[in-house]
Amino acid sequence: MRRTSISRPWFRHGMAVAAVAAMFAGLPAAPAGAAEAPPGQGVPPAVPTAEPDIGATTVPPASQRDKVLAVEAIEVGEATDDWLRLSDKNFVFKIYEKISVDDYPRTKAEASRIYGLAVADASAFIRTGVHEFVQRDHDEKILRDNERRDRIGVRMKALENARIIPLDPVLLDLTDRNFVFQVASRAKSGSRVQNGAMAAYKGDAAAWKTFIEVTVLELAEQDIVEHLDRLRRENAEKAAREERDIKRRTAVAEIPATFQNIWLDAEDDVFIRELLRLPELANPANIEVKDATERASRSTDREVWKAFVETGLKAAAGRDKARREAQEDQANRDAVRQLKVRAENSGLLPRLVTAATTALAGDRNAVITFLRTGQYEVLTQSFGTYTPGVRGWHVQGGGGDAWITPGNAGTDGTKPLAFATWKVAPGLADPLCYSLESTERAGNYLRQQDLRVKLHGNDGTDQFKKDATWCPRRNGATVLLESKAQPGRILRHIDAQLWIAQLGGGNWFDTDRLFHEDSNWRTVAPNPEVSTPLMLDWFNDDSLRALAGNPKAAEFYDAGARFREFTNGRLYWSQQTGAKFITGEILTRYLGLGGHKWLMPSTNQVSGPTRAMVNFNGENLAIYWSPSTGAKYVMGSIRDRWNSLGAEAGRLGFPTSDEFTIAPGRQSNFEHGYITWNSATYEIIVHLAVSGT
Q: What is the pTM of this model?
């Protein structure tokens, strides 16, 4: 080895060691003042502390006009005094009592739910909710009708094949479970169908559905085969006649239609001509069956008649079913596409866009599920700020004046931000625009009043409807919200307050500074978290966000330190350091040394394929990594000397050990030598490996 001796004292190393020791006792908490915002960025205002005005959230009782419109919507006759003199809650109960469950199943179910809630919910339901759910029922009626048609067809086929005759129409509209029970009760005793129905009845919804659509047909066919085999051994002629009758019954069940007993003794050609008289064949939905029946009726060949009865009618019914399903699927997909396009154009409903895209990529059942329920499950959103430096704040309204706020993180980790989630509903004053209803205050909407944006209970007046209607203008990834009541004025935040502002207007909140940034909004996922100091750094630092990726776990708080897992690694935050990124083997080594209870990272990790490093807590300590040496820390005056020699790119290369104690001082080993520090003389000595030794 060759030794280089330096006699200059190095007080800094001793100071760094003392600082590290102090770190084990706890993190320093030097409060940081607010920095001046760079040009083009907003200065974060003070977090609003105003208490919500609970009185402003009162939803006035429904007016007689509201009640008249509600009664008209549910189609139960006129709104007589018996309706109008009821309290709002009792009015909702009467809706539940009187409304048709067949025509308005969702409205009836919602009325039952609302009746069990607060009076304010009842008033809001009368004023807006009943109309929303009536529209849902209207929109869904085609789906329900198609579903009922298919259900009746499947059940008629099941009953006919199981030889449960005469057909009882009551069975066609039972629940699946009760239908299976009735099959078990009415099927021939000891038959495979009866035993299968009893077994399915003990199962779940999937078992009942499978039995009705598949299993009963398979078991019925086995029962029929066994029955005919027994009958052939006793009376071949009777068996042939009964086999013909069974084939005719099952053929008619494919349409489906009710079998007439007078057809039992008719010749095949007569039976086929009788089928043409069925009203079901006049339905365009059965065009393939009608055409096939007409072709068979024009034939003079007995074998053609026989083939039609045994297989042809079933094949034609299958073609009709496939065509109907294709047409219905196309119509449903067109409806989903229309919803998706409107949601995309609004910029307010990205979750609806995603759900629609997923549905369109799925099968017909996925599309139906979206139209029936899925589209209504993704109507809530939150609205985040766009202004650089003030990102991570959200629109919040608990009553009275509305604000933007990041929330108060306190000493907690991840927690939800209250009163910051909004249901995006059709505009109260214009269905082509939108209204934003609080998800925590039923019947309360964001509205303008004297140009200030507030959360108020809907009083049903035309003025309120205008004030609470917003017309979006999509602007790339952001959206502007123009007031319906004040055309040309758009929702803007300034000093954490919300106003409807106009560039160049005469009010203090119409100022042009950051007008564009303050009036653009990011539509984000509902139920946002309180934006902690760590997350505020992440929101407002593009390079940090690119390093870390997206959050993937909850944030933790411990004695002034915050840390959170992201897709690419971990962020640590303290008042002294701000949010800093660390990942990979350096993170593993850091955790092994005690993590945030040891030191806090003071720089983001700089990484490459052959090197990575992070500085810690401003104490001249860093962890370095390379593929061959792993992660090791260097500190104090040893690090200063190593840096003066070119650090890892110099003659010593990467550290191969953490700094450790020697007599009388400290030492760090490197790929091509080592450096020592003498605690008595403060002497730094570099030991370089001699080539070839």
A: 0.84
